[in-house]
Amino acid sequence: MKASEFVNVIGADFYTGVPDSQLKEFCNYLMANYGISSRHIIAANEGNCVGIAAGHYLATGEVPVVYMQNSGIGNIVNPYASLLHSEVYGIPCIFIIGWRGEPGVPDEPQHIFQGKVTETLLKDLEIRYYVVSEETGIEDIVKVMEEFRDSLEMGKSVAFIMKKNAFEQETAVSYQNNNVLCREDAIGIIVDAASDDVVVTTTGKASRELFEIREQNGQSHSHDFLTVGSMGHSSSIALGIALEKRDRKIWCIDGDGAALMHMGSMAVVGSNKPTNMVHIVLNNGAHETVGGMPTVSENINLPMIAKGCGYQKAVQVQNGEELKAALQQAKRSDELFFIEIKCTIASRGDLGRPTTSPLENRTAFMEFLGNG
Question: Does residue 337 come out as left (phi exceeding 0), alpha (psi in the -120 to 50 range) or beta?
Fold first, then answer.
């Protein structure tokens, strides 16, 4: 099914969401036709989307569309249950949900349980849904939307769960920026500076690149906690470790999309001021792991935000030499340190994935910390 046909049948005039690889063709269509505009907003997290969608409905009376990966269902539970639900304000919404970890379909470990409970969560939230597969035709969507109209008119929300390849390739969109430093090269420089210190990495390609760099260097993976899921929580994990292991330097390698998703975490880190923690944000202004759609990080000043949250040192670097200098300063520092690295939107086509399981990673990491 083509995304253009799907959008036409849905008949909505406003879209907000967090990009997902299962929805890449849908997201590319939105970017090609609406860009980032009053009709299409890429939000910080899925709960943020629900709030924006509610505001749109209140202002226009028109049903909004919120798109997300199924991992984002957790972020919508509170604003859906206490805001949108028909027993509260009765604000209708159409959810477009990428189904990662669909039972019977091979996927990464962080998606397996989420995929298993996706339908259960929607049933518990009382959201009518329809599963869209590669075999689904546009005439099926027309029929389903006719059935959904009654629910929407009663102030109830509905959802489409999109299986892998539900959308066919239709719109090619190229995402790029003017930065010069490759993310994998930046992580390699960080690894050299961190030496035997503790490293916590965010979900997505950053963790995959760190794993491969360790492999190439013949180094142990026990120093690293690879946050393969729970986007936006790496800095909180690093904080929890830093507060208990004050004799260790803790390096948190974050992404701009992840930092934005739960930016309140920076306020908590800054308030606690762990002097042994370095928070690094790899900023390419994009959700690169799931297709390259933009974040709003190019429009904000992350070091200024970090300072406002209580980080004692905060800098931005744009090339390898500046990064090396900042890392050495952070290594010697006894204050909470923040580094924003401006990166390109790029990764190797042959980039692999960790060959150890999350449980094996946890066990080796805890043994390294002395808690095996």
Answer: beta
Question: Which DSSP state fits 340?
Answer: E
Characterize 65-91 residue by residue with b for buried, 16 or more Cβ atoms within 10 angstroms of its Cβ, and e for exposed. bbbbbbbbbebbeebbeebbbeeeeeb
pTM for this model (two decimals): 0.94
Q: How far is CA 210 from CA 122, 190, 340, in A?
A: 35, 10, 18
Looking at residue 84, its amino acid is: L
114, 145 Cβ separation under 8 angstroms: no
Surface-to-core class of residue 350, CB atoms within 10 Å of its CB (0-12 exposed, 13-18 middle, 19+ buried): exposed
Query: Which phi-psi region, left, alpha or beta, contains residue 282 (left: φ > 0; alpha: ψ -120 to 50)?
Result: beta
**Number of other CB atoms surrounding residue 163 within 10 Å:** 17
State pLDDT tens for residues 65-121: 999 999 999 999 999 999 999 999 999 999 999 999 999 999 999 999 999 999 999
Q: Which residues contact 330 (CB under 8 A, 6 or more apart)?
A: 193, 278, 313, 337, 339
Separation of alpha carbons 182 and 165, rounded Å: 30
**Whole-angstrom Cα distance, residue 66 to residue 343?**
29
Local structure of residue 181 (DSSP, 8 states): B
